[in-house]
């Protein structure tokens, strides 16, 4: 890394986001899922607003931008956080972290529906391998399959993240002149509205005043959402989004270890093996360089020569749009890049 301190920031980020599932499990002893989501979002929004104030940043008043932010807030914040709370009422925190690790795969899958860039065979194999790991975790061929409403809610949260990140990549990245910190703050403000609307679903019941549970919810909002994003923002600024996205490999490990150490949860060998297969699949989907990055050959050229190469490419006559399998390959490439490059610009977990 360019800055050795970022190793510690990356570790802290993995701990904060990986422990979020433990904190949700603890908070459920006092709060309903929608109450936890509301507390988390409001506290996270306050922290991000404070960070914007310190840096002299202001949220936009562009109504069109706010409409895009509102969609992102629904699928990348409010909905998954409510679903995780619902799921963890019956699902262990460690397994929830494992299911959350499928988020990059869903991002790739939904990305292929809206994108048109070529995908190398390694990334196609990574996508298929990742979903094979999901199948291994659920083991539908066994009579004691893990499939339940709680598990489906957690998996639905990961799917919602995938939809949200693809939407963010297409509508909220670039072209607005706003730093990610401001966009994330706007996202949390919009998510607050959704959390308030969802509160009557199960959040009107009395709160059980359990100190550990309430502190867990507060820590989840202040540190697991607000401070964690600040750390992520700093890593992206210093090292780039691809390096920051490596936290996705550490989070399920943290969630499994914390659930085992603090809650006595146990995951069978099949689930741990499925998690490993999922992570290998995620790794393979990130193998190729991102669009716009400098290739190894270009790095050896003087800057003027690089500009000439890129300019000459831009001056080529238009090429006929691809068809059939070529279009599928183009779509998969774009989808596989969205998670590592774009999703890490926003608070995820």
UniProtKB/TrEMBL annotation:
<comment type="similarity">
    <text>Belongs to the EamA transporter family.</text>
</comment>
<feature type="compositionally biased region" description="Basic and acidic residues">
    <location>
        <begin position="297"/>
        <end position="313"/>
    </location>
</feature>
<feature type="transmembrane region" description="Helical">
    <location>
        <begin position="147"/>
        <end position="168"/>
    </location>
</feature>
<keyword id="KW-0472">Membrane</keyword>
<feature type="transmembrane region" description="Helical">
    <location>
        <begin position="69"/>
        <end position="87"/>
    </location>
</feature>
<feature type="transmembrane region" description="Helical">
    <location>
        <begin position="267"/>
        <end position="285"/>
    </location>
</feature>
<feature type="domain" description="EamA">
    <location>
        <begin position="149"/>
        <end position="285"/>
    </location>
</feature>
<keyword id="KW-0812">Transmembrane</keyword>
<feature type="transmembrane region" description="Helical">
    <location>
        <begin position="93"/>
        <end position="115"/>
    </location>
</feature>
<feature type="transmembrane region" description="Helical">
    <location>
        <begin position="37"/>
        <end position="57"/>
    </location>
</feature>
<dbReference type="InterPro" id="IPR050638">
    <property type="entry name" value="AA-Vitamin_Transporters"/>
</dbReference>
<dbReference type="InterPro" id="IPR000620">
    <property type="entry name" value="EamA_dom"/>
</dbReference>
<feature type="region of interest" description="Disordered">
    <location>
        <begin position="289"/>
        <end position="318"/>
    </location>
</feature>
<dbReference type="GO" id="GO:0016020">
    <property type="term" value="C:membrane"/>
</dbReference>
<keyword id="KW-1133">Transmembrane helix</keyword>
<protein>
    <submittedName>
        <fullName>Drug/metabolite transporter (DMT)-like permease</fullName>
    </submittedName>
</protein>
<dbReference type="InterPro" id="IPR037185">
    <property type="entry name" value="EmrE-like"/>
</dbReference>
<feature type="transmembrane region" description="Helical">
    <location>
        <begin position="122"/>
        <end position="141"/>
    </location>
</feature>
<feature type="domain" description="EamA">
    <location>
        <begin position="13"/>
        <end position="138"/>
    </location>
</feature>
<dbReference type="Pfam" id="PF00892">
    <property type="entry name" value="EamA"/>
</dbReference>
<feature type="transmembrane region" description="Helical">
    <location>
        <begin position="211"/>
        <end position="231"/>
    </location>
</feature>
<feature type="transmembrane region" description="Helical">
    <location>
        <begin position="12"/>
        <end position="31"/>
    </location>
</feature>
<feature type="transmembrane region" description="Helical">
    <location>
        <begin position="180"/>
        <end position="199"/>
    </location>
</feature>
<feature type="transmembrane region" description="Helical">
    <location>
        <begin position="243"/>
        <end position="261"/>
    </location>
</feature>
